[in-house]
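My main concern about presentation is that the manuscript never shows what a single data entry looks like. An entry of this sort, consisting of the sequence and the corresponding C-alpha cells, reads as follows:
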Amino acid sequence: MIRLAVRCKPDQADLVLAELTVLAPNGVEEERGPGYVEYAIYGGEGELPELGEIDAVVGGRPIEVSSTEIPDDWADRWRDFHKPLLVGERLWLRPSWEPEREGAIDLIVDPGQAFGTGAHPTTRLCLEYLLELADGGENDGALVDLGTGSGVLAIAAAKLGWSPVTGYDHEPAAIEASASNAAINGVEIDFHRQNLRESLPALAPTVVANMTSPILKSIAGHLCGLSALPRTLVLSGILPNELDEVAEAFLPCGFAEHSRRQLGDWAALLLRRPL
C-alpha cells in the first residue's frame, strides 16, 4: 500500500483539493497543521493517479508531493490509531468498531472516509461551541454547516436538537461522504454542493463554518448581501494570529465577537449579531 500526499499552504488548499478530488473521487485524507494543509490518498502500486499537473493549479507556488510505503497489515493496524473521543463530557465520537458510551450522545465516523473523522482541533472547537449553544437553549431552530466536509458538525447539530440542518460543500466527494455518515447516524440532513467563495445559500439563525481563514473572509464579504442574516456564527479553521482579522471581516455585517478559544495550534470564534 502506498500513501501519496500533497502538502500546501492553507490558502492553496481549495485549489489543491479540487484537483485531487477529480483524480481521486472516492475522497482524500486531510491533515492540518500550523501553516500547512496535507491531503493524502492511498492505493496499491500502479493504482494511484499521476499528480504531476497539480502544481499548475496553484499558480506555480511551491507544494510538496511525497509518497510513503505503508506496511501490508496497515488496514488492520490503523484501528490502533483511531480511538473514540469525548467532547464536552457528553458527545462521543467513535469509529464503528468501538462501543457506545453510556449516557453520551453517539456519533459514528470511520477513518478512511473523506475529510476527517472529527478529531481535528478545529472540529473539536466547533463541537464545544455547539454543545454550549445547545445547553443555552439556542438549538430550537435551523442550522447551516458551511464547508461540511464529512458532515460531523451537521450530524452533531442534528443530534443536539437543531432542525432542519443543512450542509454545503464545493466538493462532490464531501457531499457523498456527508450523506453516508448522516445515514449511518440515523439523522436527516440535506447536503448541497456550492462554491462558498463565489456565493452563499440562504442561511439559518445558527451557522457553523470550519474552513480556512481566506474562505471565511470571502464568506464575510458575501454575508451583508443576504436578505436574512444569522444571529450566531461559529467559525473555526483559524490560526491564532489570524483571529483578529477574521473577526474584523464580519464587523460590517454587524457581528461582534462574543468569545474566542484555542486548542493546540488552532483557534475558533463565536460571533453574534444583536437582535
Observations:
- Helices lie at 13-23, 74-77, 121-135, 152-159, 172-184, 213-223, 243-249.
- The chain has seven helices and 14 strands.
- The longest helix spans residues 121-135.
